[in-house]
Amino acid sequence: MLIRRRHTITALAGAAALLTTLTAAPAEARARPAPVHPSLRKHLTAYYDFEHPVPGNPAKERDLGFSGTDIDLVNGGAQARTKDGAHRGSRASLQVRQVNPQSAGNDDWKAGVYSASGVPTLRAFNAVKGMTVMGWFKTTGPNPALNTNTAAPDDRYGAVGLAGVLSGNSDGHAVRALLEIIEVNGELRLVALGRRVDGAASQTFAASQDWRTLLPDGEWVFLAATFDFDTGAMALYRNGQRLDGFYTVPGDPWDLSGPGPHRSSPTDPRGIKIGGSFPQNTVERNPCDCRMDSLMFLDSAVDGAHIRAQYRLMTSH
User: Fold this and answer.
1) Residue 317: count of CB within 10 angstroms of its CB
2) Spatial separation of the C-alpha atoms in residues 94 and 55, rounded to whole Å
3) How far apart are CA 37 and CA 54, in angstroms?
């Protein structure tokens, strides 16, 4: 299937590569990717378990999905791989963090890929009817981080970036589909944020529960966000269970009043961002002090049964 098509390195060679090229990756890291539920494989556009460095370049991570969109481990490089797997099938994860909160700069550890002309391997998200972003997350430090773009010494960012797919006209920040923590009516909340049309308004679905309860410090949590661009429905899940929440933008921000079917803009996304914005490394914005594992980006708004099946599969191995 799609995982085998991309997985051409033998288990022995993969383990050897991790042993010889990764500064901070665990010596016993597996060469095989974590399991993917069969019902999701045809939709698995991009998948990163942070145990598969690009041969010859350990500062890049191989895509185990069907798109082949390898990503950069920005600023952290190979050292960003850490010996802390989120589930039984994992031995390593990605550490992202703010490096120097006292000075303006763009040295925060994050991951992703960016192209101002669009990333052609992400074409599955071009004129797509739905998307899903999911994976494992663990907060490891103070969030949100101190804002290095303002003069006030105690000012903090209004959001914490988790993982998302950029829009087709993004500067490295604007997204088509995103999981993040952001201020809603003056209060930080875990949200799914989606934009159907490039440059148009976004919609946000916010979890009702306190984000610190949903993402307790030092605890691995499996999160998922779904975006149905045809119907306007969005949803959030935690450890396979759907979360109560609410939409924050009244009216019809995705412009769904006309005849359907409705899809996203017919443009290739400009990339993927993980752990903060601007994967081209031009600006620090909304860094997350956290670890991430087994990140999945799907070209369909899958339902709760599929998300629960993936969660159970990973936690049973």
Assistant:
1) 11
2) 18
3) 24
pLDDT of res. 247? 98
pLDDT tens for 60-70 read 999 999 999 99
Summarised one tens digit per residue, pLDDT across range 88-118 is 889 999 999 999 988 887 899 999 999 999 9
Q: Are 34 and 49 in contact (CB under 8 A)?
A: yes
Q: What is the CA radius of gyration of the chain?
A: 18
**Mean pLDDT confidence for 257-265:** 94
Distance of CA 175 to the CA centre of its chain: 11
Are 172 and 279 a contacting pair, CB within 8 Å? yes
Distance CA 168, CA 130 (A): 15
Burial degree of 157 (CB within 10 A; 0-12, 13-18, 19+)? buried
User: Stretch 64-79: mean pLDDT, rounded?
Assistant: 98
Tokens read off for 155: 């000012």
Categorise residue 17: left if φ over 0, alpha if ψ from -120 to 50, beta otherwise.
alpha
In DSSP notation, 28-69 reads T--SSPPP--GGGGGGEEEEE-S--EETTEEEEE---SSS--
304: exposed, middle or buried (Cβ count in 10 Å: 0-12, 13-18, 19+):
middle
Contact 96, 108 (CB under 8 A): yes
Amino acid at 277: S
Measured in degrees and rounded to the nearest 5, phi and psi for residue 3 equal: -65, -40
Model confidence at 57, pLDDT cuts 50, 70, 90, reads very high
Alpha carbon 118 to its chain's center: 18
Question: What phi and psi values does residue 5 have, to the nearest 5 degrees?
Answer: -60, -40
